[in-house]
Amino acid sequence: MEVSSLGTISAMMRTCRTLYQQAHGPRLLLREGITLSRGSDIVSLCSFMLADPPGRFQYLHALTLSQGNFSDVAVDALVDLLAHPNLHLESLVLHDAEEVLRSGVLIFETDGYPYTVTGVPLTNAITLLTTIRHLEMDGLEECAYALLEVFPSGLVSAMLTFDSPITQWGAPAEPEDYNPIVLLAQQADSLEVLEGAGFDADPDRVRYDVVYPRMRRIAVRHARPWRPATIAYVHAFPNLEHFGLSAPHVNPFAERALEMRRAQNREDQMNDGSWQRLRVIEGDVFDVYALGLLCPVPEVRLRGVVFRYTTHYLEAILNDVRPVTLRATILGGCLFGENGEMTSLLRGPETQCLRELELEVCFQPHEGETTTVDEMMDDIRRAIAPIPLRTLRLTLNHGFLAKTTPFLDHYPLSGKLGQPLHARRRQQKRLDLLKAYSDSFIDAIPALESVVVTLSNDAQAYEYMLGSDESRSASPLDSVGSQGQAETLQALAELGFGSLQDDGGGGW
C-alpha cells in the first residue's frame, strides 16, 4: 500500500475493516497533507477526522486553504478542526489569504468605507496553532497582515507574497509596514528561512531593535526600485548564509543613483562590519553591485543577463567578494573576442579565485551571419583558459538565431524514431562535436576535472534583457500537489468520512 494511489488505498479501506479502523489507512491518506478550497470539502474532512480523533489527527501535519469565501457552516467546521486538541499542524499554506481569512466575517459599509462588526474566526483559530513551523501566504492584505502581527512564535520558515504594498487598503503604504525585519519580529528567535515578494523598506534606515540570530537564507523581491541598506540586513541577520535580493528597475542605466547606494553601503560596512558567514549571494547584476559587499562570498549567482554595458558591474562584484563559484548568463558571443569585454574581465586578477564556472552564452541574432561555432568556441576557450578552473559548465544558447544561419551548420535537428537514418547520424555527429569541444577545454586548462558543453535554443533567456518580471521574481507559491490533493479528498469522500464506523456488524 505504501506505493499505491490514493484511490486504491480508499478502495482497500472500504473493503477492509482493519485498514479503515486502524492507523495504516488514514496515515497513507493524510501523509502528504490536505488542500481545501471548497466549503463542502471542509465539512467532509472534519467529519472524517472527528470519526477517530486520536487515530487520525496524529497524521495530519500539513494543511492548505485556498480561494476562501467559505460558508458559515464550513467556517464553523474549520474552526472546530483547528481548535482540536489532537491537531499538531507543522505546515500551513494560505493561498488567496485575504479571501480565506475574511470567510465568516460580516463586513458593512459606512459612507463608502468597509468595516467589520464581528470577529475574524479563522484568524482567531489560527493564532492558537502553536505547532506551526512553516507558513506560506499569498494575496496578503489587511486581515493577513494583522495575522502576521499576532502569529504564534516558533516559525522556522516563511514564504510571503503581498499583493500591492505600494498602497495599503487604498492609501499610500509606509515602506516599513512591509519590511520583513519589522513584520516578523515576533519570529526573530526561531526564523531560519524567509522567501517571498512585495516587501519594502526605508532605504535610509540602517538599524533596528530586532535581531534574527538563526536566519540563514533570505530570497526576497522588493516592490519598489529602492533597495534596503545593506548594513540594515547585516545587523538584523548577522548569521546569514544565503542572500537573494531583487528590486524593479525604473531605469537600469541610472548610474548615479546606483553608485550613490553602493558607496553608502560600502561606507556603512567599513564602519560597522559585514557578514562573516555569507556563502551565496543571488540577484541580477544591478542588485548585487548595489549591495557593495565587503566580505568574501564563495558563490555568486547572477539572475538576468550580463551584456556589454554591464560587464564593469560584474567585474566590480568579482573584485568585491572574490567568489569560488560564478553562475551567469552572458548576452553576446562577441564579448569573448580578442578585445571583448568578457575576455578582458576573465583575464583579470579578480577571477583567479574561481574554481567553478557556469556560463550560458546567449548569441545575438547577427552573430550567426559573421562567424562559425568553431571560431566562437576558440574565442571562449582562450578567454577562460587563464582561470584555474576545476569545473566548467558551458551552455551555448542559439535561440535567437535563425536555424538557417551558418552558426548552426554543425547543429542539425535531432533525429527521432521514424526519421531517416542519416538524421540520427547527424545527431551523433553533433554529440561528438560537443564532446570534442569539452575535451578541448580540458587540454587548455590543466586543473580542469569536469567540463560539460551543452546546447540550448530557449529564447526565453532574452526576456531578462527585456526586463521580464517573471524571470526576476522569487519563486511563486505553487499549489501543493493540487491533483494529488483532489485525489485525497475524493478518496476520503468515497470512505464516507467515518460513516462506516457507525455500521453494524453486517457486510464485513
Rg calc: 28 Å
* Portion of residues within helices: 25-40%
Shape: globular
Give me the side-by-side strand order of the main sheet.
1-2-3-6-7-10-11-12-13-14-15-16-17-18
Taken as a percent bin, the fraction of beta residues is 15-25%
Q: Estimate the mean pLDDT confidence.
A: 80
Report the uncertain regions: 1-9, 412-419, 466-484, 491-508
The number of E-state strands comes to 18
Class by alpha and beta content: alpha/beta
Major beta sheet, specifics? 14 strands, parallel
Cα(first) to Cα(last) distance is: 20 Å
List the total number of helices.
19
Care to describe what's here?
- With 508 residues, the protein is of the alpha/beta class.
- It contains 19 helices and 18 strands.
- It has helices at residues 6-15, 17-21, 24-30, 39-50, 53-56, 72-82, 97-101, 121-126, 142-150, 180-183, 230-236, 255-272, 285-291, 311-321, 341-346, 373-384, 421-444, 469-472, 482-494, and strands at residues 34-36, 62-65, 91-94, 107-110, 113-116, 134-140, 157-162, 167-168, 171-172, 193-199, 217-222, 242-246, 280-284, 299-303, 325-331, 356-362, 391-397, 450-456.
- The strands form three sheets. The protein has a 14-stranded parallel beta sheet.
- Helix 13 crosses helix 14.
- The protein is globular.
- It starts with 5 loop residues before the first helix and ends in a 14-residue tail after the last helix.
- The model is unreliable at 1-9, 412-419, 466-484 and 491-508 (pLDDT under 50).
